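Internal QA ticket QA-208
Title: Verify multi-chain structure generation after dependency bump
Assignee: T.L.

Test input:
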Amino acid sequence: MGTAQREGLVALTCLEAQELENIFALLLLGSFVGLPAPPGFLAVELLPYMEREIQVLHRRAEDAGDMLAEIAGTLGID
Amino acid sequence: MKVLFFTGKGGVGKSTLAAAAAWQLSRQYRVLAVSLDPAHNLGDVFGVTVGNGGTRVSPRLHLREVDLRKLARDYLERETKVLAESYHYLRVLNLDNYFSILKYSPGIEEYALLTSIERTLREEDGYDYLVFDTPPTGLTLRFLALPQVTMTWIERLTAIRRQILDKRHTIQKIRGGAKEWEANREIRLEYDESGDDILKRLRLLADNYKVLIRRLQGEECGVVTVFNPDLLSLRESERLITGLRELKLPLVLLIANKVTAENRALADRIAGELQRLASGAAVASVALNPAFTLGGDTPLYEIPEDLTVHFGGGGEDHV
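Actual output:
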């Protein structure tokens, strides 16, 4: 199987994984945007390891306006 | 090792009775009395100044006062250091010290309090009894609830985390082995459960909390509620008892403090009401001595009864 086909296969899973990372970061650090947050120290406790999750969170926030298009693209809907 | 928490509304005499109980227990057992109240006065009761490492009042009685501010500061400093290490490249730009702002995070004091209790329970195994003098009701209930609230969060977060790793694993399998550019540790994503730092940290926290909850709800632990014969004290004690029941923390003794000849009837009625609410916990009564004068010989309180009988360990040979 070629690289392109393999990429096609994992695209949806990649999106799912990223969304999960996004949710994880949002749950843990949600107090910054006014969500009810876990006990503050839990966020502090895990913060040192959250670099990637915060990046994903950030990117998701930037792309938020065009999420439908992105999902359509991933699912191959024209 | 048995653990006792003295709780109640501010000013009802928690510290005094915690001190009395610790003193009575220390005639037979090795006792460590820890003051968690920011307005430390456990030392005042014994007429000593409690130093940093604690103070020995008698060969079998030790006092310790916990400095919450310092605990919170130490904890955040530790976290800040880990953070600065993870983002070590910031040091090149001399920006790493900006994390120090974390020192001012709110809500950390309760956590520091809990951590301090947890550490005391874990490290102090040279004593038969640990007596905690707690801060006023609100904060006490909040920090006693903290392990269970936190456990819920940790469980949920762990579940999400495992799902993330599972997905990464799937992706990894379909894409095949690590490509050359992925070999770089910075880019390669962790998909193995034993290699993920966040999951490792979550598991460690979960283990600590499980142990703590088991100990707090266990046989070895008991809560003593002190109240005065007045309405405010009754209402707050009711809230406390209900709160303790929700948290499944065992209430072992109710103490009516500052009872005089005039308010005895009221004290008995309040005690009866609280006892019904607490499904039959033992009640003790401590009299306030009306003949007390400052500097005189008469004691302020009369503690006629040996409190230790209520704490299980006393047995038949108590003093």
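Spot checks passed. DSSP finds four helices and no strands in chain A.
Status: verified.
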